[in-house]
């Protein structure tokens, strides 16, 4: 049986460096697009979660990869639904204001 190569091995310090680099790239993306990149932020974890879910069979720990991918997709769906509810609430408030004549 052929063992899958592990591309990253580390400890908590290495993990903090990865988190720091990831947040730095996200900050540069948001600032580099003059704030317009924030509108893409809810889509990015969903895209990466979907990619992770579809390629989990290639991971060193497929079960962990599937779990983290489902968490990413779930948060993306919940956040997108929350945004949709706020947009709907906005239009309902505007509609009630117009209908009341004030």
Care to describe what's here?
By secondary structure, the protein is an all-alpha fold. It has two domains: 10-40; 42-102, no CATH class. Helix content is 71%, strand content 0%. It has helices spanning 12-32, 43-54, 62-100. It is elongated, with a radius of gyration of 20 Å. The relative contact order is 0.08. The mean pLDDT is 86.
Spatial shape: elongated
Spatial gap, N to C terminus: 74 Å
Helix content: over 70%
Radius of gyration: 20 Å
Can you count the helices? 3
Task: Summarize the topology.
Layout: H1 12-32, H2 43-54, H3 62-100
Helix pairs in contact: 2-3
Q: How is this structure best summarized?
A:
With 102 residues, the chain is mainly α.
List the main descriptive attributes of the protein structure presented here:
single chain, 102 residues
């Amino acid at each position: 049986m052929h063992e899958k190569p592990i591309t990253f091995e580390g400890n908590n310090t290495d993990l903090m460096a990865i988190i720091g680099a990831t947040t730095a790239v996200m900050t540069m993306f948001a600032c580099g697009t003059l704030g317009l990149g924030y509108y893409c932020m809810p889509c990015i974890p969903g895209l990466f979660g979907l990619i992770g879910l579809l390629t989990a069979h290639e991971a060193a720990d497929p079960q962990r990869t599937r779990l983290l991918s489902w968490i990413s997709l779930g948060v993306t769906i919940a956040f997108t639904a929350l945004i949709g509810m706020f947009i709907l609430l906005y239009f309902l408030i505007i509609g009630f204001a117009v209908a009341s004549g004030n």
